[in-house]
Amino acid sequence: MVTIISIISILAYIISLFKLKKKWLEQQIIFLIIYLIGLAIVGELDVLLPIYFVVSLFPFIKHIRKISFFTGMIILYFGLYLMYGLIVQNTIGTLVTFIAKIWQFIVFFIVYDSDIVFEKENYKKIIKMSVITETLLGFYLMMTSTIVDANGLVRLVSNAQPITGNISTVILPISVYYYLKNRENSKRTKWFMSVSLIMLVWIVLSGTRGYTIEFAASMALIFYDYFTNGKVGRISQKNRILTIVLLVIMIFASTVAVPEIFEKVQDILRLKSSVGIRTFENAAVIEFMKNASFFAAVFGIGLGGQGGSYPEMQEALYRQFNLGMWNRNHYLSDSGALFHNLYANVFMCLGISGLFILIIISIALWKRITYSCKSSAWIRRIMHLFQLSFLFVNYYRWSAVCGISEMIIFALVLKLLKNDTMEQNLE
């Protein structure tokens, strides 16, 4: 099955590469859809993710003619770890760690530095296509998923891969850009808000708290602006204010009349659910770093290193096994990234220097957002919130596409905003 789906996916990728040439956003969303459909069917990342990794980068390769000094240093830093892991350590573990954990940060700067030229794209079409696909995948997983969460609800995943809600979070920057361009158009913003609520439903039903956090952080200011924006006309604004007031009254009345509703909402959002095995994982990594050698603490064990081969890690893991941590064979025998928490993986594989580099990368990303969004403080705040939520949810297990789509789309939208600023300055 994996082979058949992989071949079909490759053919679909090739068609999209030619048919959607220079339609950068639509092409990347189609790539994501092809990948998620295949993943929903087979439920395995081992083959489909590496294929997607290559395909998603391929359109930008010939446009990487000049990269910034910072991007070059980031590529060099992670590249040295990659080469060492491939030559000296476990090859599969190295590749998995690099693609699934590290590449999301590198690809942002590669795309942002590329010299691509944008052609006019139909953003409404992209959003509509994304929501339709999200809905179809949601219904498919409702019929096929068998994983029941602690709240008693079925999680819309395929073999524990968080699929439903992924598209809705990836297109958040596109959604923000579309709303920005149509803020004064009552009809279009009304359609957008309706579609956003559909996306929110699928994000919540996915059972992935990270998706919900990212959506809330990115859309909060848009929802506020929608109900307070006076540029749509006095009548439209009054209708919007009346709508939100009625909704608040209805929610309050329902909560008072049926107190169980509030608890049910908490269950659906998994607000009371624990972080699971992450507590054990984080404790093990911290204990390992306290007792590890100076070299391991500063530079880590490498992208393909075997954590379980270190006596300090063995001791830390067995302490957590005694406290209830499960899946011991995985933690003792596997190589590369072992944990759900991105930062725990970076701490172990790259050491303190790796965490320091992530901080530098985050600062550089923050500066590029600020530079790209000079023309609007409002849009700049939203993009900063998107970045912060992205970094926060990496504490949890991240998206089915390991953040790659998120960062590519984010970089493309920032380039669009930068182009808009430049055009305004010229005018």
UniProtKB/TrEMBL annotation:
TM regions (residue ranges): 29-55, 67-86, 92-114, 126-143, 163-180, 189-205, 241-262, 342-365, 398-417
Task: Give the keywords, sorted.
Answer: Membrane, Transmembrane, Transmembrane helix
Task: Quote the protein name from its UniProt record.
Answer: O-antigen polymerase
Q: Which species does this protein come from?
A: Holdemania filiformis DSM 12042
Entry keyword annotation includes Transmembrane helix: yes
Q: Transmembrane helix: present as a keyword of the record?
A: yes
- GO cellular-component term (any): membrane
